[in-house]
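for ur thesis appendix - Mannose-6-phosphate isomerase. copy paste whatever u need, i formatted it the way the template wanted (i think)
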Amino acid sequence: MSYLNFKSEYDRFPKTTIKNHRAFHGYDAIYQELNKKINNRSVVVFDYYPGVDEKEVYELIKRFNFSLEINMYDIFKDGKTMTEQMKYNLTDDRVFGKMYYGNLVDFIDEEKLEEAKNKVKEHHGSTIIYGVGAGLVSHGDLYIYFDMARWEIQLRYRKSMPNYNCDNYDEDILKKYKRGYFIEWRIADKHKAERFNCFDYVVDTNKSNDPKMISSDTFIDSLKQLAQKPFRTVPYFDPGVWGGQWMKEVCNLDVNQPNYAWSFDGVPEENSILFDYDGVTVELPAMDLVLYQPKELLGEQVYSRFGAEFPIRFDFLDTVEGQNLSLQVHPLTEYIKKNFGMSYTQDESYYILDAKEDAHVYLGLKEGIQPNEMISDLESAQRGEIVFDADKYINKFPAKKHDHFLIPAGTCHCSGKNAMVLEISATPYIFTFKLWDWQRLGLDGLPRPINIEHGKHVIQWDRTTKWVKENLVNATYEVKEEGNDCKIEHTGLHELEFIETRRYTINNDSLHKTHGTVNMLNLIDGKSAIIEGNFEPFIVHYAETFIIPASINEYTIKPYDCDEVKVLKAYVRF
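the 3d part is after this line
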């Protein structure tokens, strides 16, 4: 069946064209460019993000015939020592660790680091320092950074790539991901951000044996340009046990796949950005923009509150012709801070982009629930003794297109089948405590992690039917904005959540002001819209998420190739 009355133009690979710059495509071109800069006394640094294929890059290194090679693996502590040092942050949990706020150098053998520094100083021939953290030894005469996005790293984990300096080739994917999320990527981002202005070149290594290299001037100018105009991140899509069929048509995906469950389309921590340099497409982590241009992108207020982190997340959950999501709850701020080292939590909401007639959302508790009884039943169900009766304990609300369900942390919830959800939430997306998963196994054939022990400490037992209806279900009212006469509705979020969402129904030009904070938007109805301001006109299509940096003071939105559009905007509330 078709879910649209027009042909979808959803762009899966949105690019930003950068003029008057070039990229070097392939190892031959990279070798030729670097060879011009290297002589028999050069100190060259090849610094890697963890996940870069070091064997692949070493084939490039061998072509230069350096007289001294320093491999960072020889300077790091051995893998077992590193894992033992990480033990407190890794925890014994399959999914959850504790956020690590240290530095890459914490896992370096200090004596070996000093030895390496002295070798570089004393050597009179050409030198290459290569590997993760190579810039700790020296910035050298030529500094090349080999970069990679987190989503590509996760895909490589699935293909048996281990974590850095680890032999966990066949370890549970969730545990590999945990190590990356809580430790590796945090210290790697910090290391990278401290050295942005040292780079001479940056290399995109997201595709095996297909590198693209840009100069530091190109890298910096591209990020500066992007922080001054609307842009999209590169969405990615993944199947799931509960996945649906809606995104196949609307997002132009492979119709032969069994399902697509979720998509990140607007999560800079995970997504990439694509730059087009005269026909060569270079992919960089969107986090590079957040780390290098935080004030321009986020705005002074957001930056002062969250630091160089993008606090809003848009993603898709597709259960159309699929199944219920797991029944779940998210931690309160105090709980996530105390147990996981995060400074804010995963408040969220479900905006219903589309729905079949029997779609519904589970949200909040029924009146008169006895906490001990519900927890006891959840635990019995987890042991396989009973089937948990969700309808006995949890409210079940019908869901139709353009409904908005608000989900402050501590509220039991899940989307039922036959709903297409635009999930709007704060960024700590990993912190979902699953309470009940409808007797399912994951795609890997293993039971999906259930977190009743965490969940029972954060469930807000007073969020029952009456309160939920009054506060969390379509709590929508019209508002006015100066200079804008289109229909504007506040749709959320709840006063306990820091994100404001507004829905705009637009027939002509509508004026929007950022007020110095980043805006994240999705075209929730209508074929396409055009965004205009002090930048080149920017066209978005139905269901696409796009970002307006805080540096843009004003912009307009109007329908493009249609009569009316609806846009949902989210921004941090102060």
